[in-house]
């Protein structure tokens, strides 16, 4: 059904006049008549009883008018909903980040954003799975993928600084003063990604060493690796952001403090858009501010 014809029909029904409907729409009376005839032809029924003095809806016309009013209500509600989503200060932000980093961002970056945007609904998904930003599953993602579709924007966040840590008891049993000492002590392996077991270490004075580690204990998550390290079962290579508190309270100690690694180069990912909603711009700014305030967690 042609919605323009339906709109013309609704105007005639409301005003009970072809002439008045034409005037209200700024069109000719002939065009109004053609729209009504087209509708009647399409529906195979008469919509109006028309005399020189009155225009009255037929029974099918009354049914169509009721449906037209419902369509108008739905259209108005849809317009209101879209306006709520696109105007400043309303709508949803769906954010996904790795399960290790996501909670840190939620604790430090999002409270201020939420305070400034009380009507924004935040949906957080902390997972190592790749969420489909390209097709709208998430609005913003923090990811370390190197290859991204052309329709995505990747704002460089930087590489996380990974450090070597273990329990105080382990380093007391096996003092580690040089890189070669790592060959004689258990290291903790990642079962999530085997490539993470090749530690690309670099020193503060510019030296670089590639070290393939060996050990009998592994975990698929950083939380598991940290727990194994705290239990004295080996040395782990962990992002500084995740072990800073454990270093401060003494449950972990840093090994070879002049050496670090960088496995994960992070990007803030979102779709190309002609117009970026204010809520999205402010959310991205909040994450970038979090990165700036914690720059020591990243490789300079």
TrEMBL record:
Domain named HTH lysR-type: which ranges?
1-58
Q: Which domain of life is it from?
A: Bacteria
The protein's matches in CDD domains, at most eight in alphabetical order, are given as: PBP2_CrgA_like
InterPro entries, per this entry? LysR-type_TF_proteobact-type (IPR058163), LysR_HTH_N (IPR000847), LysR_subst-bd (IPR005119), WH-like_DNA-bd_sf (IPR036388), WH_DNA-bd_sf (IPR036390)
One Gene Ontology term of the molecular function aspect: sequence-specific DNA binding
Protein's GO biological process: DNA-templated transcription
Q: Name one Pfam family in it.
A: HTH_1
User: Per UniProt, which keywords does this protein have?
Assistant: DNA-binding, Transcription, Transcription regulation
> Which PANTHER family does the record match to this protein?
HTH-TYPE TRANSCRIPTIONAL ACTIVATOR TTDR-RELATED (PTHR30537:SF5), HTH-TYPE TRANSCRIPTIONAL REGULATOR (PTHR30537)
The record's comment on protein family reads: Belongs to the LysR transcriptional regulatory family.
What is the name of the protein in this document?
Transcriptional regulator, LysR family
UniProt source species: Grimontia indica
High-level lineage: Bacteria, Pseudomonadati, Pseudomonadota, Gammaproteobacteria, Vibrionales
């Amino acid at each position: 059904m042609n919605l323009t014809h339906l709109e013309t029909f609704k105007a005639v029904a409301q005003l009970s006049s072809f002439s008045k409907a034409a005037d209200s729409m700024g069109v000719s009376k002939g065009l109004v008549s053609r729209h009504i005839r087209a509708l009647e032809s399409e529906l195979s029924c008469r919509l109006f009883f028309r005399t020189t003095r009155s225009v009255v809806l037929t029974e099918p016309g009354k049914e169509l008018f009721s449906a037209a009013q419902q369509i108008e209500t739905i259209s108005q509600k849809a317009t209101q909903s879209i306006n709520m989503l696109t105007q400043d200060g309303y709508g949803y932000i769906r954010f996904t980040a790795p399960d290790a980093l996501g909670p840190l961002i939620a604790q430090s970056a999002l409270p201020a954003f939420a305070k400034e945007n009380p009507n924004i609904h935040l949906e957080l998904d902390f997972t190592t799975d790749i969420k489909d930003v390209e097709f709208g599953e998430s609005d913003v993602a923090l990811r370390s993928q190197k290859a991204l579709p052309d329709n995505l924007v990747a704002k460089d966040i930087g590489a996380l600084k990974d450090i070597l840590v273990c329990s105080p008891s382990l380093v007391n049993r096996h003092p580690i003063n040089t890189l070669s000492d790592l060959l004689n002590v258990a290291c903790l392996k990642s079962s999530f990604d085997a490539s993470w077991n090749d530690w690309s270490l670099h020193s503060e004075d510019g030296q670089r060493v590639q070290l393939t580690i060996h050990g009998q204990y592994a975990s698929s998550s950083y939380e598991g690796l940290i727990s194994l390290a705290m239990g004295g079962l080996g040395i782990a290579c962990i992002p500084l952001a995740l072990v800073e508190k454990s270093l401060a309270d003494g449950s972990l100690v840093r090994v070879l403090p002049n050496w670090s690694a960088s496995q994960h180069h992070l990007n803030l990912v979102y779709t190309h858009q002609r117009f970026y909603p204010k809520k999205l711009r402010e959310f991205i700014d909040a994450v970038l501010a979090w990165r700036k305030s914690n720059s020591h967690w990243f490789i300079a």
